[in-house]
Each structure stands twice: as C-alpha cells, then as structure tokens.
Amino acid sequence: MPSLSTGYAPNLGVFLKSLKSQQLEASIENLISLLKRRQIKNSRPCAIATAHLLLRVVARFKWTDVGKLLERIQEVGQRLIQAQPREMVVGNIVRRVLGMIRDEAKEDRNEDASDSASNSQLSSPKRQSSDLGHLRNAGGPPTAFSPLRFDSKDVVQAMDSNSDDSFGSKSSANHRPPLITSHTSYAVTNNVPVQHSMFNLLSAMPSPLATPPGVSSPQGRSSVNMSSVAHRAAASSNDLKAEVISGIEEIIDELDQVDEQIASYAQEHIHSNETILTHSSSRSVQKFLLKAAEKRKFTVIVAESYPNDHEATHAAVAGKSKSSLDDSDDMDSDTFLKPLPKAGITVIQVTDAAIFAVMSRVNKVVLATHAVIANGGLIAAAGARGIAKAASFHKTPVIVVSGVYKLSPEYPFEFESLIEYGDPGSIISYHDGPLVDSVEVDNPVYDYVPPHLVDLYITNLGAHAPSYLYRIVEDHYKAEDTNFHNPEFQY
Amino acid sequence: MSQKSAKGAGGGAKAAPKGKKAAASGKKVARLEDEREETLQAVILADSFETRFNPFTLETPRCLLPLANTPLIEYTLEFLAMSGVADIYVYCGAHTAEVEKYLQQSKWYPPTSSASPFNSLEIVKTTAKSVGDALRDLDARDLITGDFLLVHGDLVSNLPIDGALAAHRKRRLADKNAIMTMILRDGGLHGHRGKSNGITPVFVVDPTKDRCIHYEEMHALQANKYVNIDPDLLNEHSEIDIRTDLIDCGIDICTPDVLALWAESFDYEVPRRHFLHGVLKDYELNGKTIHTEIVGDHYAARVFNLQSYESVSKDVLARWTYPLVPDSNLLDNQSYKYESGGLCKENGVILARTCKAGKRTVLGRDTSIGDGSRVVDSIIGRRCVIGKNVSIKDAYIWDDVSIGDGTIIERAIIANEAVIGKDCHLEPGSLISYNVKISNGTNVRAGTRLTRGNRKQEDGTKSDAPSDPSLVGQGGFGHAFEDPDEFSDDESSAFHSNMVYSTAHLNISSESISTVSSEISTSSPTTSRSRLSSFASDDADGGNNENFHHDAVEGLLGTLRENGDFDSAKLEFMGLRLSNNATDQQIRRAIAVAFTKRISQLVENDKLEASKAAAQAFGVSGADRFIKNVAIGDEGLEDDQVDFIYRLQKDLVHRNNGAVILAAISQRLYQMEILEEEAFERWWTECEGLEDEDEGMKKVREKTAVFIEWLRQAESESESGEEDSD
C-alpha cells in the first residue's frame, strides 16, 4: 500500500494506517513479518506498533471473560516475541497490557466483593503504581477473573497470599489522595489515582537524585478519585473492555511523551560547564541534552558509533538531513530536533577509538538504551560497553536515559543471546572483494552493559539506581506474565 | 496455454476491495499518476529456462532449491513484500505444478493465508520456453497496468527499492520513453564472490543521466576483449562510464512499454543479452531509453548457477543478506537461533559433547552430529545424521542426509535423502543429488555429479540408468549425470571443461543457455553467439559487429531450411548489410557460417551423407548465384574466394564431422563453379605453409586433401592434354 512519498515499502506509518482496514489476523501477521524483516525496528517504533496492534486485538475481541482475553493476548504476544525476540519492548508492552487486564479484572472482583474493608486490609502500600496504564474511571461488569494457568480459586488464594508482594487493592490508593498533586509530570497516565508505595518513598529519601516515583497526569485528568470510584458500582454496566482499551491508549500516550518526561529531569543532572560524553543518535538523549541546554552552557562529546549509526549521529550533530534520522521513528512532523550546536551546546565529535582518550575530561556519560534488563544491565548500541568501561576506569558517572517501557522483566541466562548481529556490508564494502572471502566480519548491533558499570538510570519516572530497577519491574509487570512467552520457564 | 487457475481468479476477486482502499489512501497523497498505478505489480520469472542447476533441477524446480534451508523463492517473495508489491505474477517453466503447490500452501497465497502481504499472487501457466516467450505471453494477457518489477525467482536482496522507484517515476514523468530502470550493484574493482565468473557484463552508462547506452557480455574465453561502441555515442554523451564491475541482480523496474517491445521482437529470448542489447542498439529507431540505478550498499544477488549458489550461501552465513538470515526464521516453522561465533541452529539439534560445530554454520532441526566431528562454514538441513569423526567444510547439505563415520566432505552439495557411507571422501565440487547412496570407503573425485534420476527422454519416458559402482562403490546407488544438451554441442562442453579449470570449482554453469526441452538448443541465437565469440580470436578483421552476423546467419538459415527463394533473401541480406555497414569479410563469414550450420544440421539430424547434405544446401534455388554475387563478389577475385574457404574452414572446426563436410562443400562449390581451382590451390598451399597452424584447423582440412590431390591431378592432366593438342 502506498504511503506518503516514501514509496511502497511498508513501515510503521503504513502499518498503523493499514490496521484500520485490514483483518485482525492479517495485521498480526503483517506486524510479525515487519518485525522479521526489520522494517519496524528499534524500541519506540516496535512499542508503538505493538500497542496499537494490541488495541485492535482487544477491540475486536468477542467478549466472554477476562481469562479468554488474557489467553488471546498471550497468544498474540507469544507470536510477536518469537518473530523478533531481541526487540524486548514488544514483550514489555504485551506484559503491561496483560498486567493491566489482570488489575482491571481484580478490581472488578474487588468492586464486586464490594466496598468491603477487608480487601483494603490485604493491600500493601507497595502496589498500585504498577500499572500506569490502568484506568478507573469506568466501571466494568463483574467478570470472573481467571488467568491462564490457574483455576480461579487457586488464583484468588495465590493472590491473597501474595498480596504483600505484588497485589493490593486500589483502596490503599484511595486512602492517599493527597499525594496526587505532590509530584509533577513523571507519569503518563491520565486518570490514575496516585498510588504510592511506601518503599518508593523510603528509598527515595537517601538519594537526592532519585525522585519519588508516583503517578500524576500531565493532562490534568488526575482528579479521578474516590468520588468517581464510588460511582463505579453504579456505572458497572460499562464495559471492562473500554477500560482496557483506554488503558492501552494511555500506554500509547506514554510512548509519545516519554522523551519529554525524561527531558524534564535534565536540568537536575546536567550542570553548567560540564563535559558530557554520549554516543549514537538517540532521540531521548538528544532531547535530554537540548532541555538542559535551555538553561545551561555545557560541552557534549559525541562518539560517532561507526558503523551502524554514524550517519544518523553526524546528522544529529550537524543537523543536516532529517531523513537519515530514522524515518520510521518519526511519527509526527513536529519531532524535528534542533541540532545540538544550534541550542548553544559546544559539540565535539570524536571517533569511537578516541573514547578512552577523552574520557579523562568528561564529567558525565549519558547513554541511550535499546532495552534495560531487570538486573540493571542494559542493551545499547554497540560501543556502549566500551564507553561504560572507560568511564568506570576514570570514575566518571554513567547515566542511562531510558523510558520505562524499555525496562524488561526478562532476565536472560546468556546476554549474548540478546545481541543482534547485523550486516557486515556497513563495515567492508564490495570494493574489498578479496577480503570478503578471506576474513570474517562481525557487526554486532548491540552491546550488553552490566549493571555495575551504570551509576544511574533516568526514566520517565525519575532517577533510579540500577539496583533499584527490580522494584520498578515489579511495579509494572505481574510476575506471572514475566515468562508468558515460554511457559517452560514459568514457575 | 491454460488459463489462470480458478483459485487465482478467486484471489483476484478477494483482492479487489483491498486494492480500492489502497487507491483511496493513495488519493489523499495526491500523486501525479493516475489511480490505477497506485499498486505495484511484480513479475517473478520462477524458471530461468536454463539447466545450470542440473542434476538437482531434474527433481526439484530451481526456485524451490533450499538456500540456507529456506527455498530460494522465499527470499524473492520477502524482497517483494519488503518493497510493498501488491500483485504478483509467477511464471514458471519446468515443474510448474510443484511450484504452484508450494506457493498455494505458503503464507504468501492470499486466498488461503491471511498473512499474505500481497493482494494477489497468480501462478501463470505457460508453455514458454524462454524468458522472452514468458514476457510475450504476459503482454498478450494484458495483466500489467502500470509500472512493475521484473525479478527472477532466485533473487536474494535486502535492498530498499523506493529510491529507485521514485527516480524511475520522475524520469518517466519527464520523458515517456524512459521505459526501464535496472538496479545494479556496484561490485567493486577487485574480484568479489558475488560477481559472475563466466560472463562479464559490460554496461556503458552515461552517469549524468543514469542512462545505459550500450550493453555487451564478454566471455572469459573470448580472446577478443573489445567492446564495440558506436562512435555516435561519444558525440552525444559528454561523459561515459564503461563498467564491468557491476553485479547484475536482475531487478528491473519496467513500464508496460517494455512488454510491448518484447512482443515486437519475437526473437529476443533473454533479458540482457538480447533485449537490453537490442533495445539500446535500436535507440535511433524506437527512441526508448533504459536507465540504471547503481547502488553501493545493501545486498542484491541472483542465484543463477552453482557458483552463485555457493557465494550467496556464504553471504547468508556471513549475514550480508541481513535481515534475510536464518535466525529471522522466514518460514513459520523455523526456529533458528543465532549464537555468537556464527552458529545458527534450530531447536532439537543434538550435538555430541566432543564435536565442534560452529563458525558460520547452520544446523536444521533434529540434526545430530556425532563425537569428534567438525562442521565449519556449512549449511546442514533438517533430520540429518552425521556420524563420528566426520569433517565437513564449505558443504551445503540438505534435509535427511546421513553421513557415515570418518567421512570427509569439502565444498560439496548433497541433496535430500542422500546417504554417504563411512570413510568416504567427497572432493571439492562434488554434487550428490537426491537419494544417491555412496557406499563405504568411496572416494568421490572433484567435480563429480551423481544422480539417480534420469533426464527425461524426448519421447517422455523415464529410463532408469544403472548405478555405476566405479563412482558410488559396491552397493551404492547413482550414476554420473550427463547432460544431453551439454554434449550435443561441442562448443559449450569445451567451454565448460575449460571453465572448471580456469575459474570456479562448482561450475556447471557456463554452458550456453539451453532450454529445458533440448530441441531448441542448437538453433537458438545464443548458441551461435557463443560459438562466434570463441573463435573471434582469429578473426581480427572485424567480427565485432555481432548483431549483423547474428541476424544475417539467422536469415539465411531460415531461407535454407524452408528451401526458400534466395532472391528475396538476398534483398534482405543486402539491406542488413547496408544498415550495419558490414564489411565484405563479415558478409563472407556470415554466409559461410549459415551454410556450414545448415549442412551440419542436415548431417546430424537428418542423417544425410555430407555430400548429399551439401548438395541439398547449395541446391536451394538461387543459392549459387547468391554465393557468387554476394560472398565472392561479381569479379570473382581469387583473394575473396580464398577468404571464403578460410571462413568455411574456421567455422567447421567447431562442428561435428567438420572435416567431412568441408571436403563435401569444397567439392560441391568446385562443381558449381563458384570456387576455382586456383583458389583451392592457393588456400591449400597457404595452409601447408603455416608453421603454427591450429590443430583444429588442420584436422578439419585433412579430409579435403584427397580433393586437392584430385584437383592437382586433373590440372596436370588437362595441362598435358593441352600440350597434346598443341
């Protein structure tokens, strides 16, 4: 199908457009093959595509009960993950949606059990920031909660017994409405009553860098609160489906705004006259730096990350061609970014080989990510580990800038398997024909950076130490969804 | 010709609403083109009408041969899906039913698979015997409505085609005559494994307009390494690139005009050597221009012979074709995972603890490798059983193969269900076809081709040839593959055997193009052309105008075959001569070639005796006058006569029974008083006088010695007679 000016080749834009007209099954297969052919790649486009697809899946789903819906989403998610296991965000988005559905279902059940205070006692303060995405403004019909692999009784028991860890009830949140207003704009979701975990509050104290995670709405719809919740039982004719759909829409909103939210922390972390080292071209990092540059003057050293991303990096620095800045990434035209020098930043571009040499003058290293793993390590563009290692040698702090959607609950046994190997054509050309025959050329696209080389993560929820990420994982994903794609690993 | 299948028609119907939507969304974009051009069509030539993959293609269509355990056509379809093609027409020659079955069961077939990114996928059944036939058929069916991609069913490419398409569009809007854009991969100045070994394509390009202005192909064996460029081109174009470094990946963006051109020229058979060359040559006549899009990155290559099969396999292993690599799991049922070091394996592979599998290796599901075995740089299919202490290097092993302990395999292709015994040694270049069994301890020599299938005879029966124990050992099954086409034509087999030593080890390919049915091979224009190029070496005086030669020979042959009228043939011939500005030498060569060819055909096919054949050929009405006037010239100069004999001799070097035919022709021409005895005399003495006379030339004229002897005697007799009368 033709798309704007780019010709016939399908990409994210074409895919999203085709979603409306295509059969659901065709859309799923379409996304699978786009992922396989890497015509949708990198975290953000994959996440957006997955979220939109799941939205369709839910919308088209013939409503019977939640268990069936979960099964269906798991099935679709499994296929998507198999298509391209290294795009971990696909799994992340699927898990978030699954978790959200579970929450909604649970809530309804609680709602059903109706205002009984007993439920609120089960609640632990930890819970409920879990899904940024879920919604409470609409009531759902009481629906049997039956997750995939347990019968519902077991689940209830399991949930009750586990509630300290990962389950709670919304009533806890309801007890603390005041927190809603106390934080600005880290979250994404519109109308989630703010929930706070005590743990978060405590852990936030010692670190001046860490901002207490919480949820509030940039859209100002945050005032959905007890009163609306109270109405819910009455409004229970509303469909759970609608809630789930708007929950997914919120995830999509989050994906849209995540860079701005991250950037809003920039000025806390970048100070005047600092020297920052970064590499490759990432929109998140670029926005982060641009935001900091609004108030401060500083120097940025950009390593070009040859061979996979150097052209885009050059473009980001020089602001030359927009097109090479990863078209598929740019959904809307207003994402055009000012090149760094225009924003008053002194930019020095170095080759990757010079990283160690310049590291001694660097005050901070800012890295972009492809995916973040639950242990606090990250998958980033090739070269990141070298930078992190050099930084640790010079005791330079390493800051990783990443949306929460990149954070994966998966904990692979071998990190090698997460690293994608690309096309050696970008390293040696056909002009070196004899070399092609006699030399093996590897072109790893990503690097694994172990957690001990990272000092701080800045997400849209604020700044966290790597050791703290597991908490965010727990807040965002349900433990039973972690390995939904390969059941043999599920406990 | 059968019509499209009912299912295909169903696909078209189902696709209609989709197409409408596409058009609707296209409207918003407000393109300049009219609506029906909004979807992109593509034509896949699934059969290239060649036999370069024998013996494997005896059993399997070429586009279904596995490359890195995925059928070739999957790569092509992935490429088309990647390019956003909506409608696909697949043309196949041999094994159409199998290709059709495969496609209908694949995820690509829109009526049965919702996963298909295409609106329609139609398998067109034809009786086409060449690419040209297929395209003329396509033109007649009127399926193509707008710009389309013409690709081969063996294309492997990850090239984004949008840029080239946009450039093509722009050019066509500016000038309706810009009918075609070829996508060529810059291959670099040095050798590259992606370049074809036997034939070097020469593209003459005007880089300012990206226009291809001349095309020629050069053979590795061709001594005459010149390209003949029309001087006018130098005047018209301020800048010209002559490039031999381009890899022709066979992706053409065509307008429907291209099909019309094919239809007009019914003798074009192959897209490059005939069509491209012809259209460029006739630029003055038709005004059509053909453009090039030379790309410097991404991967594009065709698997057109076994050498390229190997090179593309290596590229897949080295991930040049990324993302079309095994671990992308292009097929639904694949589960490859990539491990560092380049080992790609599916679930269920059993590796013994002490075996070494790795370094650019692909292992299919349920394959097991025994203790102490080593597998590097190889592709192994599913369910293979590999014994202990086996060494496999650079080998391409398909499914269900079992290999016994201690066997060594280097650079071989082993097809499905073959059995290799213990302690065998397969030397480089071995091709083991389906179901062949090689018993223990056999040494398969380099370049051996073993098969169990037999080529279909012309009457359609399939005879089972007995197994050859000297090749497969006692108890083995299989015999050497012999290609009838290959040996009916000395030229190509000579070329073939040369190629094996000169360039590549897996070569089978450089046979001249011969079609699936062998009847066409001898008279196809291609054959005559390759023949010509190989003796162009001793033909320094201007064998370059090959088109003239080709056209002239074809014309004359036609006349001879039909016992037609030489007066009209002469008219045509002189017209050709004038339009091509051919020299006398070229004319003589063409005539000589035409006659010798006809006579050798008569001798071989109709089993005539050489003298009778000569009589028949020269007996065609007007032939004697034609040769006298045109070949020798009205003056009947002795020089010209001698030259004509030389031409005959040269051409006959390459034909069966050349010597006999030369003797017969000489006699005949003498009888017809076309050639005089002085000319023969001079020719003979000149030949005798040559110190470094070519072996072939000498052989050919051996049989004529008797005739010359007879001439000499007759002469002396008549002289003595004259003396007597004095």
UniProtKB/TrEMBL annotation, chain A:
GO terms for molecular function: guanyl-nucleotide exchange factor activity; transferase activity; translation initiation factor activity. Belongs to the eIF-2B alpha/beta/delta subunits family. This is Translation initiation factor eIF2B subunit beta. Transmembrane segments: none annotated. The keyword Lyase does not apply. Signal peptide: none annotated. Component of the translation initiation factor 2B (eIF2B) complex which is a heterodecamer of two sets of five different subunits: alpha, beta, gamma, delta and epsilon. Subunits alpha, beta and delta comprise a regulatory subcomplex and subunits epsilon and gamma comprise a catalytic subcomplex. Within the complex, the hexameric regulatory complex resides at the center, with the two heterodimeric catalytic subcomplexes bound on opposite sides. Residues 115-124, 160-172 have a biased composition (Low complexity). Residues 105-148, 159-178 are annotated as: Disordered. It comes from Glarea lozoyensis (strain ATCC 20868 / MF5171). One of its GO terms (biological process) is cytoplasmic translational initiation. The lineage of its organism: Eukaryota, Fungi, Dikarya, Ascomycota, Pezizomycotina. The keyword Transmembrane helix does not apply. Keywords: Cytoplasm, Initiation factor, Protein biosynthesis, Transferase. SUPFAM superfamilies: NagB/RpiA/CoA transferase-like. It holds the Pfam family IF-2B. It is found in: Cytoplasm, Cytosol. One of its GO terms (cellular component) is eukaryotic translation initiation factor 2B complex.
UniProtKB/TrEMBL annotation, chain B:
SMART domains: eIF5C (SM00515). One of its GO terms (molecular function) is transferase activity. Residues 1-30, 445-492, 519-542 are annotated as: Disordered. Keywords: Cytoplasm, Initiation factor, Protein biosynthesis, Transferase. It is found in: Cytoplasm, Cytosol. One of its GO terms (cellular component) is cytosol. Residues 543-721 form the W2 domain. Belongs to the eIF-2B gamma/epsilon subunits family. PANTHER family: TRANSLATION INITIATION FACTOR EIF-2B SUBUNIT EPSILON (PTHR45887). This is Mannose-1-phosphate guanyltransferase. It comes from Glarea lozoyensis (strain ATCC 20868 / MF5171).
